[in-house]
Write a structure and sequence with these properties.
Cofactor: Mg(2+)
Distance between the termini: 19 Å
Radius of gyration: 14 Å
Enzyme class: transferase
CATH superfamily: Nucleoside diphosphate kinase-like domain
CATH architecture: 2-Layer Sandwich
Order of helices and strands: EHHEHHEHHEH
Number of helices: 7
Largest sheet: 4 strands, antiparallel
CATH class: Alpha Beta
Strand content: 15-25%
Strand order of the largest sheet: 2-3-1-4
Number of strands: 4
Shape: globular
Subunit structure: Homotetramer.
Keywords: ATP-binding, Cytoplasm, Kinase, Magnesium, Metal-binding, Nucleotide metabolism, Nucleotide-binding, Phosphoprotein, Transferase
GO molecular function: ATP binding; metal ion binding; nucleoside diphosphate kinase activity
CATH topology: Alpha-Beta Plaits
Amino acid sequence: MATERTFSIIKPDATRRNLTGAVTKMLEDGGLRVVASKRIHMTREQAEGFYGVHRERPFFNDLCTFMTSGPVVVQVLEGENAVARNREIMGATNPENADEGTIRKVHAESIEANSVHGSDSLENAKIEIDYFFKPEEIVG
């Protein structure tokens, strides 16, 4: 198994309910280590750039509005097979389909307000990490 880095966002629905620590604990208890973390209020421009791949999808505007509705916590996570491990810990996008004990099963409010985002591949993890972090901010 390879040590990898992946990207995570604790979304506005979770930060609004003061779940940053609870979500981070679930990630750490699942074997991932936080090597960079910062709380930001994403601008509309940042949200549109980050989610640009979805620009033509009908949910794009609502997604950007949601992601700018309050603070988020962007994180770089490190661990064995971090991308896959993070996705396991998060659970299915729709919390109704998420496994028991996953972040989304425990904390998500809905399929839209599902508490967390995680990279879906090593390639996207690098792109997403570089979008929010300078190399010197990652201190693992």
